[in-house]
Amino acid sequence: MNLIEDFKYRGLINQAIDIELLKKRLDISPITFYCGFDPSADSLQLGNLLVIMTAKRLSKYGHKPIILVGGMTGLIGDPSGRDIERSLPDEALVFLRVEKFKNEMSRFFDFKTEAELVNNYDWFKEFKLIDFLRDIGKHFTISYLLNKEFIKNRLDNEIGLSYTEFSYGLIQAYDFYHLHKEYNCEMQLAGSDQWGNITSGVTLIEELSGNKVFGLTLPILTDENGKKLAKSLNNTVFLNKEVTTPFKFYQYFINLSDDIAYDWIKKFTFLNKEEIEDRIKEQKKKPETRLCQKYLAKYLTDFVHGIDTTNRVEKISEILFNGNIESLERDEFEEAFADVSLIEIKKAEILNIDLSDFLVKTNICNSKRQSREDIVNKAININGIIYADINEKINEDKILFDRYIVIRRGKKNYFLLKIR
């Protein structure tokens, strides 16, 4: 199976420029390709990770990646795939994020031997506007740009499109041209929302140099409801542990639906076709094993955060699964429950009161009647232990690390009580 056939099996090709010609070119000798990452947030996220893993896959076939961090494009804002105008970020914030992205990328690529790391601000900072308009802008007609899907979509809504974002495609097109000229870069790899920008780059290179270059886009990742992964929808995770804890990152993959796990084990891992099909076949026989979810969780947490961190979050997960919350160290405990609904209360307000009163006092239950029903029905779990006695007292023994009580109501509703 050659590279393009492997990509097709894994569902990694959304669109490609001259795919048969690209297939032949990739078989002849190694190429240099690039993928860009605009610092529009404090951390790379899961969609970026798919591009990174695909770049690593190309690298394993002998091809050389250029990782572009968009210091310049981050100052402008990419309108692709967006219904509204981005707020222009502060320059200092963009430059800070550039450094964060560089640090994150250094965990995934060896920039001495495997890949190049560049910042497009470096070649744009001295570029005069009049030179850009004369040397680059003259190669694009207004009708050509207006036919771009992302531009048409924005012009059709009430928000419209500013000239700042309208110019984004030309800036990215020049990035491709610059990298082709300086590094002999022959292909751009990106998410499918970048297709219009990629074709602009290909057009510019062919006009200015006459050389043939390529573009390949990956499908946009979606959740089980078909919605694009996005921070605003709270359905994605980030690669920086300060934004998404390693435990939450690991659990995200553990909790994937089977269908998404079967798809993502192809896209995100380096298992071969036989290994993938064996795991999927085994899981379909015994769905409770969640083999694909567990492999993805371990493999990607290893890749993003390292083996030691993976071992740590696996330990936390096992302890929580078995209900042994009191076995956790304090830092493990705080990481595990970092995203649980937090309730702050004074110790004097809850100490030595009945469990039924406690649940009402903390607003976990709406009424005394509801709290009693939940307790009798064994729906209340405190620190991993089910209590069925409505007269059970909240004493010092139930306060962990002299500060916390974990309450679970039903199967999924967790609350973290923080004692002031």
Q: List the uncertain runs.
A: none
For the biggest sheet, the summary is: 6 strands, mixed
User: What value does the average pLDDT take?
Assistant: 91
Instruction: Give the distance, in angstroms, between the N- and C-terminal Cα atoms.
Output: 61 Å
Give an overview in words.
It is built from 21 helices and eleven strands. It has 420 residues and is α/β, with parallel strands linked by helices. The chain has a six-stranded mixed beta sheet, sandwiched between helices. It has a five-stranded mixed beta sheet with strand order 7-11-10-8-9. α20 packs across α21 (368-376). The longest helix is centred in the middle third of the chain and has 16 residues, at 168-183.
Helix and strand arrangement:
Layout: H1 3-10, E1 15-16, H2 19-28, E2 32-37, H3 46-60, E3 64-69, H4 73-76, H5 91-105, E4 116-119, H6 121-124, H7 129-135, H8 142-146, H9 149-156, H10 163-166, H11 168-183, E5 185-191, H12 195-209, E6 214-218, H13 246-254, H14 258-268, H15 273-285, H16 291-305, H17 307-321, H18 330-336, E7 341-345, H19 347-350, H20 355-361, H21 368-376, E8 380-382, E9 385-386, E10 404-409, E11 413-419
Parallel strand pairs: 2-3, 2-5, 3-4, 5-6, 7-11
Antiparallel strand pairs: 1-6, 8-9, 8-10, 10-11
Helix pairs in contact: 11-12, 13-16, 13-17, 14-16, 16-17, 20-21
